[in-house]
Automatic annotation (TrEMBL):
Keyword Transcription: no
Co-factor: note: Probably binds two magnesium or manganese ions per subunit.
GO biological process: DNA repair
Keywords annotated in UniProt: Hydrolase, Magnesium, Manganese, Metal-binding
Gene name of the record: xth
RNA-binding recorded as keyword: no
Protein name per the record: Exodeoxyribonuclease III
Site description Interaction with DNA substrate, residues in chain: H251
Superkingdom per UniProt: Bacteria
Annotated site residue numbers, Important for catalytic activity: D221
Chain positions of site Transition state stabilizer: N152
């Protein structure tokens, strides 16, 4: 088996969490890591520290907000695009795409959309529409593709500890969920849910009301695979220990493991969808 591990991690400030990031990379050694919320300009990206840890990187920063990066262990990621198509006036750093060891890796930080209703939610849905259109072309590209990132969508009530206190949040709105479902309807495989159909798995715990201590989490970080790559999926989970570090990100790294010798084989059959809470 030629294994490849791909992860996504919203670091919530790469300068603030650099020690956590380096500790995670050293311990888990993902082959590819997609990062979101760098919250730093391009010149502040810790390129040398990551190189010293064995990772090459491409990144797109933004002052105080947003920012995405793709790290690759031991090889250079080959940049494909630096922005989501469809709106040349969109200045947010939310999308990055690269080829890594034969796999197209899309790293995304979908807009949060709060408060809703309002212009921020409108922007979220407009961005989502552009993403759905681009995802369709990626799905049909003939290349193995993973779309990894912070989608800021809780797909179903089963993906949150308790939906009642979040009913007005943009992450749970019917429009947000419908957009995510339209991605799945294109054929994308939700890695975590495919391998864990009946297990409540979370990737985010906010800083308030002891949500981490109570395991009151949400699943909003997703890795979606197209038909070429989905047969390679052998494992998927969350590195929860990172969320338990001192002054952590509110997200934990989410990862998949792929058996690349399976490339070209039949897509896995869809499993029964988990019941909603």
């Amino acid at each position: 088996m030629r294994a490849m591990r791909i992860a996504t991690f919203n670091v919530n400030g790469i300068k603030t969490r650099l020690a956590h990031l380096l500790q995670w990379l050293e311990r888990e050694q993902p082959d590819v890591a997609c990062l979101q919320e760098l919250k730093a300009l391009d010149g502040s990206f810790p390129r040398q520290e990551l190189l010293d840890a064995g990772y090459h990187a491409i990144w797109k920063g933004q002052q105080s907000w947003n920012g995405v990066a793709i790290l690759a262990r031991g090889i250079e990621p080959l940049e494909v695009r630096r922005e989501l198509p469809g709106d040349p006036d969109d200045s947010h750093s939310r999308y990055l795409e690269a080829a890594v060891d034969g796999v197209i890796v899309a790293c995304l930080y979908l807009p949060n959309g709060n408060p809703q209703p309002g212009p921020k939610f409108d922007y979220k849905l407009a961005w989502f529409e552009r993403f759905i259109e681009h995802a369709a072309s990626l799905y049909k590209s003939g290349h193995p593709v993973v779309m990894a990132g912070d989608y800021n969508v809780v797909p179903t009530d089963f993906d949150i500890y308790n939906p009642r206190s979040w009913l007005k949040d943009a992450l749970l709105q019917p429009e947000s969920r419908a957009c995510y479902q339209r991605l799945l309807d294109q054929g994308w495989v939700d890695s975590i849910r495919h391998l864990h159909p009946d297990e409540a798995i979370f990737t985010f715990w906010d800083y308030f009301r002891k949500h981490w201590e109570r395991d009151a989490g949400l699943r909003i970080d997703h890795l979606l695979l197209n038909a070429e790559l989905a047969p390679c999926l052998v494992d998927a989970n969350v590195d929860r220990w990172v969320r338990d570090l001192e002054k952590p990100s509110d997200h934990a790294p989410t990862w998949i493991e792929l058996d690349m010798t399976r490339l070209g084989k039949k897509k896995p059959a869809a499993r029964k969808r988990a019941k909603k809470a």
